[in-house]
Design brief:
- This protein is 46% helix and 13% strand.
- The protein is of the alpha/beta class.
- It has 2 domains: 27-207, Rossmann fold (3-Layer(aba) Sandwich); 214-416, Up-down Bundle (Dehydroquinate synthase-like, alpha domain).
- It comes from Natrialba taiwanensis DSM 12281.
Amino acid sequence: MTAPDSNGFAQRARDRTPFRFEFTSPTIRFGRGCVADLDAELERLDRERALVVCGSTVGSTPTVIDPVRTGLGTELAGVFDETTPKKRLGTAFDGLDCLRGTDADAIVAVGGGSSLDVAKVISVLAADERSRADIVAEFSETGTITVPESGLVPILAVPTTLAGADLSQAAGVTAAPASDGSGRIDEELGGGIGGRELMPAAAFYDPELVATTPEFVLAGSAMNGFDKGLETIYAANATPITDATASRGLAALESGLRAYGRGERDPETFETILEGIVLVQYGISRPGETTLSIIHAFGHGLTRTNDVQQGTAHAVVAPHVLEFVFAQEGVDARVDLLADALGVGANAEPAAAVVDRVTAVRDALSLPTRLRDVDGPEPDEFSAVAEATLADRMMANAPPGLDPSVDELVAVLEAAW
């Protein structure tokens, strides 16, 4: 439905149907030096001792960890700097021991998605009264851990990348085979936890900290975050609220990321990028649902059994996925709204213009453009990747009318090869 408003702007939206929007937002602090107020947020939460959870790189980088330490002041209980991209359940148990050993009553998670996810698992473990053996057994059998209704340790998130775990009600977690021969876990297991209680109590978006992140890490996370905005627009469960935040966020990201690609590293550029990330994330992780869709399903399929990084996987396949979706007859992919958000709404062929603009953002970040150039699947594995993609829960949010086959998804992978 296209209807002009009083300013002559074409409002491009699906036919209005009743919707329910529920989103539990953390307190958001934004701006240079905002981590100086970590102690104030702890006081608001009536907490007195915070354990910093991060990876070893963040923990040993003074430009990142020192402002956090200063912001916590006397409320700093200790630093647990052992998180890794594997997001191990064993690491979370170690973090739980540190939490209890330092008598901390809050967690400050600093870094990328790995540290934020492990912090959420630590919070859940702290509230779980079962034995470790019972918790591991549940994860081994179900791939998840039941989130207690109360007793979770509040988390203050300080993201240094752009992937989005800071505004999420979920966390990934993996477990390695047991080394004690118990047989409790006999193979590599991947899974996750979810629940509205996992949303951080506060999130601190400090451009000065994000600017310290190595470019190769930041670029991949930026593409992951950028794709969240794209997918939120065409998701089957999009709402006028997420339309507004995602559209504004995409516009900021398109401008900021291309400036970043031109070599602009000034504080204003990082503020623009971070503003865009906050907006595209806002409202997409809701109780029982998310607006993430087919690009993220491909990302999961590609990284499920390969070492390719999630943002890199997105960078390679996103233009090809969009071309496929836009070409499907009867699919409501909301191309016009995407074109408006990306600044190409006046183009005579908006679908092609959107793909070109997404490709330009990807290229500005100097990310890989072909599957053959990354540590991903070979062509003989494409059918398995396509099957995993089709079975991924994110496909439930695919644009209305999209019902792809395994062969069609294989063709997308072949185009990306």
